[in-house]
Amino acid sequence: MNSLLTIILSVFLVLTPKQEVIDSTLNYAVVSNNKVLWEKEINHLAAHKDSLDDFHKKKFIELIYGYIGWNIREGKKEESLKFVEYLNSLINSNQDVISIAEQSAYLAAVLGYKILLNKEDIIIGGVKCYNAAKKALDENPDLPLANIIMAKVTENMPSFLKNKHKEALKYYYKAVSIFENSNNTLNNWQYYETLNSIANIYKKMNKEKNLKNIIKKIDSLKKNIMNIDPMKNDTVIKVDTILFK
């Protein structure tokens, strides 16, 4: 019986890659604009979603959250909506795994995505989105995701709010500071994307000097990330199970 349990655990550990493997793979996928690699990570976790531990459950939610943004940028509305509803169901079914702050941040993301996809009223939905993001920050002001979501909410507020870009930068930089203090930047796709969000704001504000400095930082990070090719790592699992057909 013990030997059988050992075999089962050994198989599970092989099939579910370690944190640093997943994180480096996701970061490489974002920097290299390799959506297929991101989809493979979703699919091999989906293949074992009934037996995932808490870390992998949280990582699966993070993967779906990031994947929606990817599809929205590509203009894939129907695909995005399908995953928005799936993300919402994951939030509800994993309340014992993710914190209240994380639940609120992801809920704000769901509402924000629905507004972008014209499935939520921009005024009513915007208020609900802001309140959810604020609740996340109130619960845990040091949660990077909460700061990133609040930054996005602020950045997309009506144009007559003159200080919205300045306020958004405050939250983006708070997230950057948290990431950098955790020494987890090389293997963190959200850190890379946050730097790019900051660059986009500086571009809108015509802050050329600030833009130049942040792009220099992004280029340096990108160069280091591209030197780590996760496809050479044997622990990156390739499976054929498809989450959505």
Helices and strands in order:
Layout lengths: L1 H14 L3 H13 L3 H12 L7 H20 L3 H17 L6 H17 L7 H16 L4 H12 L8 H18 L7 H16 L3 H19 L19
Structure overview:
Helix content is 71%, strand content 0%. The protein is built from eleven helices and no strands.
Key traits:
disordered N terminus; 0% strand; single chain; 245 residues; disordered C terminus; mainly alpha; 71% helix
- Please tally the β strands and state the result: 0
Multimeric status of the protein? single chain
Mean pLDDT: 83
Please count the helical segments. 11
Content-based structural category: mainly alpha
Poorly predicted runs: 1-16, 233-245
Shape: globular
How far from one another are the termini? 38 Å
Give the DSSP E fraction (strand runs of 2 or more residues). under 5%
Order of helices and strands: HHHHHHHHHHH
Main β-sheet, in a few words?
none
Radius of gyration: 19 Å
Q: Helical percent range?
A: over 70%
